[in-house]
């Protein structure tokens, strides 16, 4: 059984392997004899022998009365394998160029339901820098519990987080409670509403909505991240100093 598995790994299918091993054992033989030895039907054996001949593993001997096949050395299997490797190596640079060109195509993943959106935060908090803008007041209880679970990790691991929050009561209280040297907040002007949460993490942007059923869309794209990051920085720098909470100035004046 191991022998046939090895031949399959070297490029032969199960029936080809049976015919080839039978012919190796016989040395040479006619199609009917090979068919009996291999346990394959005669018409199928004709086709299999031709396939093996194309691979250089059997040879058709010139006979006037009937066709006689003989087996070639199994070394040919290894040589064929090495030839394939050489072809792959020669073409690998071009193949890798094609692969890398596709990597920058945006990838989109959807999350539906509170449980799945909560799990998204497991992925978000793996990053060492997170940019966020939205409203704590809109986050559902289950997702907020997941976020709160990581707040001590943020302080301990020195994860760099900047948040622009809507000026609602829950968001302001969250900012006052959690502002630190590496976790900074700015509060948007009262007239500015942020009905969805938006997170920039790694090479991804997450857009999260809690209206009706919580759902999220995560886009993985260098260009999309660059755009969202630029927008975040513009908004961050435009918010007045008095709406900035940091680790040394958490006094409730926002």
Quick synopsis:
The protein has two domains: 2-74, Orthogonal Bundle (Arc Repressor Mutant, subunit A), CATH 1.10.10.10; 107-245, 2-Layer Sandwich (Endonuclease, Chain A), CATH 3.30.870.10.
Task: Describe the structure using short key phrases.
single chain, 254 residues, alpha+beta, Arc Repressor Mutant, subunit A, Endonuclease, Chain A, 2 domains, eight-stranded mixed beta sheet, three-stranded antiparallel beta sheet, 11 strands, 49% helix, disordered C terminus
Could you please describe the fold and organization of this structure?
- The protein is of the alpha+beta class and 254 residues long.
- The chain has helices at 2-9, 14-26, 31-38, 42-54, 75-103, 114-124, 141-149, 151-157, 169-178, 222-238; strands at residues 28-30, 58-61, 68-71, 107-112, 129-134, 160-165, 183-187, 197-201, 204-209, 215-220, 244-245.
- The protein has an eight-stranded mixed beta sheet, sandwiched between helices. It has a three-stranded antiparallel beta sheet with strand order 1-3-2.
- A hairpin with a 5-residue loop joins strand 9 (204-209) and strand 10 (215-220).
- Helix 2 (14-26) packs across helix 4.
- The protein is rod-shaped, with a radius of gyration of 33 Å.
